Model the fold of this input.
Amino acid sequence: MVNKNLLASMKKITLIILALVWISSLIILIVALTDIFPDNPFKEYRLIVGIGFIVITGFIRIAYRQLLKINGNTG
Done:
């Protein structure tokens, strides 16, 4: 049987990693859609970055719900 403290800490680490991935993809989306930087490498790929952000958000949502389901929480 897995220690409950270990499982709780693994859940926290997983949530932190998911949040960091989402925040970094949000920053990339903001950079791609605005003209903050003059030589923006994402300027030509705005549509792909936008679709990628939506896909990453969907995958993170699925992972978060499965993480809640494993813990026995409904939400």
